[in-house]
Design brief:
Layout: H1 6-33, H2 46-58, H3 64-71, E1 76-81, E2 94-96, H4 98-107, H5 109-112, E3 116-121, H6 122-125, H7 130-136, E4 141-146, E5 152-157, E6 164-165, E7 168-169, H8 170-192, H9 194-209, H10 221-266, H11 271-295, E8 304-307, H12 308-319, E9 323-325, E10 333-336, H13 338-356, E11 359-365, E12 369-376, H14 383-389, H15 409-419, E13 423-428, E14 434-441
Parallel strand pairs: 9-11
Antiparallel strand pairs: 1-5, 2-3, 3-4, 4-5, 6-7, 8-10, 11-12, 12-14, 13-14
Helix pairs in contact: 1-8, 9-10, 10-11, 12-13, 13-15
């Protein structure tokens, strides 16, 4: 049951509740009818038929109406007729059941000496197994036994009032009604929990790319409050994130111009001082450029088709990185920003070249995802440091003394990939080094 969603659990609870109610109703009905059921049985026992035959044989003709009134009831009709039933085809509208007639004759010596005919109405018999169907549902069943005076005793079963509705057994109708109620209940539960399913999908999508997707307000007041609060929350988070990006973009833009003027003025200084100052300015410019790139991730469209196979092949050819395509003939296209994804993978390849002397690219495709793997033989990144180096302005220990930078390379790549529906993971290379694994679920394809 732990694998069932909320809608599945509620549906299961409703179905179980309906089952319990039906079982309780059946138990109450059986308890109420327990004493009356033997008298309301559907078919008289053979020994009773034998007793009735003997009574009608010995009773004067004038008393037979009294016997009919005494032993007949609402479901069992007795009559005496001088007309013999048709033994072979049966009377019009009836089907002869020789199997039941022979069974009654074999049961009793008295009945075995008489002519016994059993027939049932055509609309009750059915085409298959009429003897079995008559024993299970004997409404319309007629047993004819010839008396000693030549007349025929007719014992006929008719539907018992209260046990059928419109000719259909009450239990069948109740079962059908229960199925209808269960289906309607499940449908209502499914429709009622639809806002929760939409909310779940929207939360996952918003967490992936921070793009607000306002949900339609549902009818129920409690769900309406929840959805309205979520819509407000994602709008506020998106505006706060956009404000941060705008601030970074503005700062990086405003820093560039003064730095350019400062670089021109420094050219008049002593060469030794000038070179050191220019290196510092170049580093500050790189920080500003990286910050602008980090902020501009949210400004680019992410709805264009991107062929990862072609993108990676071009980068591999440009950077001299070995590339293996294991995706076969399957498509390797996703929806995203070609420019930003090119920047993200270029950053990853550049990091591998700076800190590990290069890496190896692979493209793979699974049942539910497409995967890009970049592995190197460098110093790697400790497991305890991997989450930190994916944050802005953070750098791993091995890189601090090897290259200058703002610490935005990995975080920028991770941000771009995340905003394009993927996920960047850092793992150990069994042979030594680092494995950068980028996974795009097929839902984004």
């Amino acid at each position: 049951m732990s694998r069932l969603g909320f809608a599945g659990r509620v549906t299961l609870l409703v179905a179980m509740a309906l089952l319990v109610v039906q079982l309780a109703s059946l138990g109450a009905w059986l308890a109420d009818r327990r004493e009356a059921m033997p008298e309301r049985r559907l078919l008289p026992f053979p020994d009773q038929v034998e007793a009735l035959v003997q009574l009608f044989d010995t009773a004067p003709e004038a008393e037979r109406p009294l016997l009919i009134r005494a032993f007949g009831d609402e479901g069992l009709v007795l009559s005496v007729s001088p007309l013999a039933p048709q033994a072979e085809e049966g009377d019009p509208g009836e089907v002869v059941l020789p199997g039941l007639g022979q069974w009654l004759a074999d049961f009793s010596a008295v009945l075995g000496q008489r002519e016994v005919h059993v027939a049932i109405r055509e609309d009750f018999a059915g085409r298959l197994f009429p003897n079995l169907r008559a024993a299970i549902r004997p409404e319309g069943l007629r047993i004819s036994i010839r008396l000693l005076d030549g007349e025929w005793l007719m014992i006929q079963r008719q539907a018992i009032p209260g046990m059928t509705i419109g000719g259909v057994p009450a239990g069948t109708l109740l079962a059908g009604l229960s199925l209808v109620v269960a289906a309607l209940s499940i449908l209502m539960v499914w429709r009622g929990t639809r806002p929760l399913r939409d909310l779940t999908r929207s939360v996952a999508d918003f967490g992936r790319d921070l793009t607000p997707r306002p949900l339609v307000l549902p009818g129920p007041s409690d769900l309406r409050v929840l959805v309205e609060a979520f819509n407000t929350m994602q709008d506020r988070i998106a505006r706060a994130d956009q404000g941060r990006s705008d601030m970074l973009a503005a700062l990086s833009h405003d820093i560039r111009t003064p730095l350019s003027r400062l670089a021109l003025r420094l050219r008049k200084l002593d060469p030794a001082l000038r070179d050191a100052a220019l290196r510092d300015i170049a580093q500050i410019s790189r920080v500003a450029e990286d910050a602008f790139s980090f902020a501009s991730v949210d400004l680019d469209s992410r709805d264009s088709p991107v062929d990862l196979r072609s993108l990676l092949a071009d980068l591999a050819r440009t950077t001299g990185t070995p590339f293996e395509d294991f995706a076969g003939a399957d498509a390797a296209e996703i929806k995203g920003s070609p420019e930003l994804l090119t920047r993200a993978f270029a950053n990853l390849i550049d990091n591998a070249q700076k800190y590990a002397g290069g890496g190896r690219l692979r493209l793979l495709r699974g049942d539910d995802h497409i995967e890009v793997v970049l592995e190197d033989d460098g110093p790697g990144i400790a497991a305890s440091e991997r989450a930190r180096v994916l944050e802005p302005f953070q750098r791993g220990e091995p890189s601090r003394s090897q290259a200058a930078g703002a610490g935005l390379g990995l975080s920028l790549s991770s941000r771009i990939i995340g905003r394009n529906g993927g996920e960047l993971r850092l793992e150990d290379n069994p042979a030594g080094g680092l494995v950068v694994r980028v996974v795009f679920p097929l839902r984004t394809l």
